[in-house]
Design goal:
290 residues, alpha/beta, 30% helix
């Protein structure tokens, strides 16, 4: 047990009948870290999150949160969670819901600060049961941070939000993180993970398959990406090409020597709209979970 760790998972395992949802997972999350949790549907992310929150008991191994059991950490207010499908009270205004929940915490953030951070001023009078998807997510975020937790666990926090709401959400999140909180979030928006996370963990089939910074995760692809429109050709025979893919008329070559690849590529008739980029997190993700 280490004092500076927000989360310690040791051989954490959960089975549902013949299905092993989480398979002997070892993971340490230091305090003050922003960690993105990635994986395809069924990878075990949600089950892991539920065990960290004490909502599900493991079949093997252990989970500790700030050196305590998950249930103890939640009871003492160290953990706040924003779950994607958490129901909100119907026939209650957003203002009334916030006031009700605010009174249940021992040391909550000031209600005005919660409203500002979650950007709720424009919907305080709205019925909490009739909000749009993005509005409901903002209310769930407010409820997650209300108790001033040291650890925030967020499941798909920006689902349903428009681009501007997503931008404001992450600005608020970065500000919260600077106050010393640990943030763990699961997302299918890989650009958010790449931009905002200090560390990215990728799960597949219940196991951890990658762990590192965005740059480290992307390095599994190797080389640079060359995208272009053009005719069918034996692109894999060009110098430096290590991978070829096609999508809707656009070719993507992954090359270990982009200069050599480009020299030959640009001499082929019909090649146009050439773009050279560094590997994307999406490319690495797809390769890791394939």
């Amino acid at each position: 047990m280490t004092e500076c760790l927000a989360i310690e998972l040791a051989s954490l395992t959960k089975r549902y009948g013949s299905i092993t949802a989480v398979n002997a997972l070892d993971l340490d999350v230091p305090a003050d870290q922003i960690l993105a949790f990635l994986g395809p549907n069924g990878a075990g992310k949600s089950t892991t999150t539920e065990m960290v929150l004490g909502l599900v008991q493991p079949d093997g191994g252990s989970a500790r949160v700030f050196g305590r059991s998950p249930a103890q950490a939640v009871r003492c207010g160290d953990v706040g969670a924003m779950l994607q499908n958490g129901a909100l009270l119907a026939d209650t205004s957003v203002r009334g819901l916030l006031r009700l929940m605010h009174g249940l915490h021992a040391h909550p953030l000031p209600l005005g600060e919660v409203i500002e951070r979650a950007d709720l001023a424009d919907i305080l009078g709205s019925n909490a049961g009739k909000l749009s998807g993005g509005q409901a997510q903002r209310v769930r975020f407010a409820l997650a941070i209300m108790g001033d937790p040291r650890l925030l666990i967020l499941d798909e926090p920006t689902v349903g939000m428009d681009v501007d709401s997503r931008r404001r959400f992450w600005a608020s999140m970065e500000d919260l993180a600077q106050g010393g909180r640990t943030i763990v979030f699961a997302t299918h928006y890989l650009d958010e993970a790449d931009e905002f996370a200090d560390r990215i963990v990728v799960m597949a089939a219940g196991r951890l398959v990658a762990d590192g910074s965005g740059s480290q995760i992307k390095s599994v692809v190797g080389g640079r990406q060359i995208r272009f429109a053009g005719p069918h050709h034996r692109w894999e025979e060009l110098p430096g090409v290590i991978r070829v893919s096609q999508d809707a008329g656009t070719w993507t070559l992954t090359s270990s020597d982009s200069d050599a690849t480009l020299r030959d590529l640009l001499g082929i008739d019909g090649v146009r709209d050439v773009e050279v980029t560094a590997p994307r997190l999406e490319d690495a993700f797809l390769e890791l979970v394939a």
